Amino acid sequence: ESVLSGDGDQPGTPVGHLHMHRGVGSALVTKKQLVDTLIRVNHDPNHPRGPTEEELDAHRASLRAAVASGEAEAVASVKKARESISALESAERAATDAL
């Protein structure tokens, strides 16, 4: 886990060491750097963002449609398999009767 300590209220005063969970290294972070980074991330149109509610709704609708389509295909496949089994059973009965 990452750990931040210190208050960084004075300009240039470290907020604390950000210890990497793998112990690879650490970085000094000031409060101003944190604020600047947050502003840049939140207002940068090129920065990756989470999906909007509309995008989530569209994705859910797409998944529901895919499930419905898959269910329809499964039902058709089962129906075709039953017809094949029935045809084989009929052929078997006819062969048995012919003997």
TrEMBL record:
Region (Disordered): 1-20
The name this protein goes by in its record: Uncharacterized protein
Organism: Prymnesium polylepis
